[in-house]
Design a protein that fits this description.
Layout: H1 16-32, H2 36-48, H3 52-64, H4 68-80, H5 88-100, H6 104-117, H7 120-132, H8 136-147, H9 153-157
Helix pairs in contact: 1-2, 2-3, 3-4, 4-5, 5-6, 6-7, 7-8
Length: 167
């Protein structure tokens, strides 16, 4: 028995090329049913392809339905000025909404923004929250702050995953 050169699904043995079409059809069905996660995924795909206008549409719809991931990606569009005019107020608004929704990357970015403004105490608070959500970049930022004397060692020891790293 010869092995096929066309990759197939391990479960149904359909061609993965056909499976991709099925997945896209399922995603569109979910989008029509106002599923914000499906809209965000469609927006991410459009953004990766460079279609920032479509990404904006999908992210805006998903964010309107309360999707934290969509708010996070909208903040990137407003930060970069892709598909929209650069707008730091809208960027921060969407980062805040995503952070409230539990998005660790958004919380990290808010910490970076506060650090740039010189509000180290607020930056550290954002990074602590993000680190507790498992964000590695926030843990690294807190370690840099520890080395600079802005964070107590006790704060670092309360964070998850820090015990496995040298302080």
């Amino acid at each position: 028995m010869k092995a096929s050169l066309i990759p197939s699904c391990s479960f149904c043995r359909d061609s993965l090329y056909k499976a991709g079409d099925k997945l896209e059809k399922q995603r569109m069905t979910r989008i029509e049913a106002n599923d914000p996660a499906a809209m965000s995924q469609k927006g991410i795909g459009a953004r990766q392809k460079g279609d920032h206008q479509s990404a904006l549409i999908y992210f805006t719809k998903a964010a309107g339905l309360g999707d934290a991931e969509a708010h996070y990606w909208l903040s990137h569009l407003y930060s970069d000025g892709r598909g929209v005019e650069k707008n730091s107020r809208k960027e921060i608004h969407h980062l805040e909404e995503a952070a409230i929704g539990g998005h660790p990357g958004a919380r990290f970015n808010l910490g970076c923004d506060e650090n740039e403004k010189g509000s180290i105490e607020r930056a550290v608070k954002h990074w602590i929250i993000a680190a507790n959500l498992g964000d590695d970049l926030s843990i690294k930022a807190l370690m840099r702050m520890f080395k600079g004397g802005f964070v107590e060692k006790e704060v670092l020891l309360m964070l998850p995953f820090v015990h496995t790293r040298p302080v």
